[in-house]
Amino acid sequence: MSGSSEIRPFLPGDEDALLALHARAFTGQPPRTRRHFDWKFRANPLGALEIIVAMQAERCLAVYAVLPQRCQLEGEPCLAGLQTDLAVDPDLRGGLGGSRLILAVGETYQRTYLGDGRKLEWGFPEPHLQRVCLAHLKVGVLRDVNLLVREPEPAPVAAPPGFEVRTIARFGPDLDRLWSRVGPALGTSTIRDTRQLNWRYADHPDVAYTLLEARSAGALRGVAVVRAGGLDPRPLSLMDWLVPDEDEECEAALLAEVCAQAARRGHGYVVAWFPLFFPVARRWQRRFGFFVHPTQLQESYRARGGTGRRWLDEHWYQTLGDVDSL
Fold it and tell me: Is 174 in contact with 316 (CB distance < 8 Å)?
């Protein structure tokens, strides 16, 4: 493939070329639809679109796309970014041309969009692209993604009396009140309020997520989100979890329902992801019989303001919902 490329921000009218590159580059995933593109990049809670493309005539040869995120860092609101699409045309892989293009779109992204005081970025790039980012774009490796796994039966715990756990279509405004209680204890995380979780799960154009809420005496005590498959097609994946750490009854009620749903649907496993330093990860191993299972997924990050890798690994709360491809 010869000829020079134009490196620039995405413009209206680039959609078809970008979707065609996605289909060529991400062969293990279903082709992205225009509806999915609009949901992710135009309807996200910040309403911001941050995409750099390398164009050759009508063909897109590379892309560096970041999904702006509302996060908190040590309890203080901050802007962050999820590196969602990092790709080069398969015809250019394995040569210097592809590496140079990834470097060019990455550097252009930094010059164009990173003047807003953004504190954190994270992503899960393919290994051959990760190497370029590590070497040239000031990206580091944060951690390996290690799942918590258990069979759904026997049930990990009996559901306590007095709780109603039900499936809902969308989260209501009382989720914001739950987040106001749970968020400060998490410290560093994505903002998991009503606007975020409804956009991420209820409005998703392709995946059928199940939204669960646990109530006691009418009050919302905790929420969870599950889906069939994920990193592997066999398990039921726990995508999100928002329960006060000290609320053992709510934890038991929700987890009992998650495992019951996995058993009813015929899934052989329940899988979840919490950073292993968090109390919930240790408690689920000790109390509920989950074991740690390594994956091939590795998280990359970029941080500003002196926040180090080790500190982030120990304090940054994440779930499978923070992996954009799931």
Answer: no
Name the pTM for this structure. 0.94
Domain limits for position 105 = 6-138
Provide φ and ψ at 66, rounded to 5°.
-125, 135
Q: What is the pLDDT of residues 81-129, one digit of tens each?
A: 999 988 889 888 766 667 788 889 989 988 898 876 788 999 998 777 7
Whether residue 157 is found in the same domain as residue 114: no
Site of tokens 């809420």: 213
CA distance 165 to 118: 38
| CA separation for the pair 54, 109 (Å, rounded) | 11
Residue 176 corresponds to which tokens in the numbers above? Answer: 């914001």
Tokens read off for 185:
């204890």
Short-list 258, 163, 268, 255, CA closest to 218:
163
| Residues 88 and 153 occupy one common structural domain | no
